[in-house]
Amino acid sequence: MTITQTKPGAGVEFRALRRTFGSTVALDGLDLTVAPGELLALLGPSGCGKTTALRMVAGFDHPDSGQVLVDGVDIVGVPANKRDAGMVFQSYSLFPNLSARDNVAFGPRIRKVDAATRRARADELLAMVGLPTQGDRFPHQLSGGQQQRVALARALALQPRVLLLDEPLSALDAQVRLTLREEISRLQKNLGITTIFVTHDQEEALSMADRVAVLRDGRLEQCATPIELYHHPATAFVAEFVGTMNRIPGRLTGSGRVEVAGQQMPVIGDVPTQTAVDVLIRPEDVRVSADVDGPARVVTVSFLGPTTRLFVELPDGIGIKADLATRQASGLGPGAAVRVELAEHPVMVSASR
Amino acid sequence: MPTVATTVSPPVPDTAPAVSGRAGARPRRSSATLAALPLLVFVTVFFGLPMVAVGIGAVTVTDRATDTTTLTAANLSRSVQGAYLDALTSSIKLSLITAALGVVLGTLLAQAVVASRLPGLRNLVVTASGVLANFGGVPLAFAFIATLGISGVMTELLHLTEAGWSLYTPAGLAVVYLYFLIPLMVLVIAPALDGLRPQWREAAANCGATGWQFWRLIGLPVLGPSLLGGFVLLFGTAFAAYATAAAMVGSVLPLVTLQIADALSGNVLIGQEGVASALALDMVIVAGLVMAIYLPLQRRSARWLR
Q1: Fewest C-beta in 10 Å: which of A103, A174, B193, B272?
Q2: What CA–CA distance (Å, rounded) separates A152 from A150?
């Protein structure tokens, strides 16, 4: 099937964006650039401002100060119905009185595209999202996944230069979420539309996005590729928010090193002023081996397919998570005596909690 | 402008089961009938039996001298002639106009309250509407007479008589009817307006629609069944209103409910009970006709719900 996207993706830039709701600061001077054709995920906990930022691109919200630039043009004063951005909402938001086909054809209808052309375009888009035979159905006759596919087709019907996805998968069950995740990525890549994707699901963000922007309290913590974000987090917040992280008490020993679990490790990133710190270590950087004289004990074992997660208690009562290849973990059951070692990577430290 | 023509293979169709309106276990016929029994008894006693009595009264005449009852079409024939026909027509006109105005004004008021997003205001308006929708009859008539009657406070204060105002006209009666019809519409339509999700308006704007286009293509069609239902309810309420009109205008204005009362009480002529029954039957037929128009419209406006 040939889908024609006549407009290239646009560059989007948030410049010193600030928005408050009463005493709550939703966006606190957000600066962020999205390249043309890029899929950027806005990731962060609830209330971090990611949806507010997205809604400002759509025109549903307006900044107290700052600019939203699309291809270098400030669009803050442009009404929502005049913006060149398609949006998919969290709760589908299909028009209940229109069939799937008429929902998709709604935008072209508003733009006075003739009936035959808009019907053909709607059918083409419905086929593209895997619903070639569902055009006559009304929203309540479709499953959640099907409704969200129709919403995606509707958002693409006007060939927008920017596609905005506001947690589009969060209301779907796990299997449908996985399938749609792949399909959205594939469509975005094929059509080349600049896409901003809001999610609180880190797995979704890391698997789909070209870059991930992590927001916290209305500010940008870090914007980087998923790999960079995971392996080189800029802050302790990013390190803990993205992926799973152990927080193990340690002690700074000077000259950029920290003592943790009986090992000396080099420190990267910001270093707190106090000596007692928490060391941040990923489960895959914890090595566990069976040892009858080992000082640590396995508490629980969780099978995760190719890997197995162990929860191990150290002699001083501190619990840490360790991810092992399932083959390596086969002999380690709850209660097993083990020896724990940390990979000799530079580690991040954070103020002790 | 460059063109990006991309070959996109269709994804695997979503095999998740579509939600069906008929899904779910259907209760067994016997238990369903049993559950509906109280309703059936209620309808039979309070609607069916009076209907039968009205029907019999409308097509029979009793000779008091011989105490014999015979079938006749005279009552029905008289009920659609002369003053009775005028009354029927006036009642239908008044009910249609007040119902239409009530739907429009009640919807606008309810929308203003819902859109204000002030819970306090909403509670106040809904509570007041609940009271005012039931504030009909003689107390309401006297309230209006004291306020907007010939010597009413507002009439004298604003010199309304000189401006041509009279409460004892169809227009005056319409104002009084609207006093309880608008709150009734607010009660009916407010939940439906709550059901209009803000995201639909945003989605429409995102597709390029203006506010008016949203209301024309999405908002009003979605509200269609509720608006139609509200209209029928308001029409029925206005059509059947008696006490307010009786207290205000007596027999000055021809209204079918007032004519029925006159015929039953022998106010003008004695022995008119059969005509009263025929007029009541006419009202039932009018209500039936309204329903006959309403149901297909409702079905059409709500086809997307099935």
Answers
A1: A174
A2: 5
Whether B16 has a pLDDT exceeding 50, the answer reads no
Backbone angles phi, psi at A251, to 5 degrees: -140, 125
Q: Least CB-CB distance to A110: which of B13, B17, B208?
A: B208
User: Is residue B176 located within the same domain as residue B45?
Assistant: no
Q: Considering the domain A12-237 in this protein, what is its CATH number?
A: 3.40.50.300
Closest CA to B205 of A87, A325, A41, A128: A87
Query: Which two structure tokens, joined as six digits, stand for B125?
Result: 């308006």
With contact defined as beta carbons under 8 Å apart, do B228 and B301 qualify? yes
Q: Please answer yes or no on whether A132 and B13 come within 8 Å at the CB atom.
A: yes
CB neighbours of A143 closer than 8 A, spacing ≥ 6? A176, B14, B16, B17, B18, B19
ipTM over 0.90 threshold: no
Residues B53 and B179 in one domain: no
As a 3-state breakdown, chain B gives helix, strand, coil percent values, each rounded to 5, of: 70, 5, 25
Cβ of residue B3 closer than 8 Å to a chain A Cβ: yes
Q: Which residues of A touch B20 (CB under 8 A)?
A: 141
pTM of the model: 0.79
- pLDDT of B186: 95
* pLDDT attached to residue A180: 87
Give chain B's domain count.
2
* Contacts for A26 with CB less than 8 Å, ≥ 6 apart: A19, A20, A47, A49, A52, A218
Amino acid at B48: G
Please, what is the Cα angle at B245 between B239 and B247, to 5 degrees? 155
Question: Which of B21, B202, B210 is facing A60, going by the closest CB pair?
Answer: B202
Q: Which residues pair with A296 in a beta bridge?
A: A338
When pLDDT is averaged across residues A210-224 and rounded to a whole number, the result is 95
CB contact under 8 A, A2 and B20: no
Domain range for B96: 83-305
- State the architecture of A246-351 in CATH terms: Beta Barrel (2.40)
B47 and B114 share one domain: no
DSSP state of B46: I
Q: Classify residue B20: in a domain, yes or no.
A: no
B263: domain CATH number? 1.10.3720.10
Q: What is the pLDDT of residue B17?
A: 44
Query: How many CB atoms lie under 10 A from the CB of residue B47?
Result: 11
Do B117 and B250 fall into the same domain? yes
**How far is CA B278 from each of CA B60, B86, B283, rounded to the nearest angstrom?**
10, 15, 9
Q: Is B13 on the interface with A (CB under 8 A)?
A: yes
**Whether residue B147 is found in the same domain as residue B40:** no
Separate counts of helices (H) and strands (E) for chain A: 9, 21
Whole-angstrom distance between the N-terminal and C-terminal Cα of chain A? 56
Q: Are residues B111 and B182 in the same domain?
A: yes
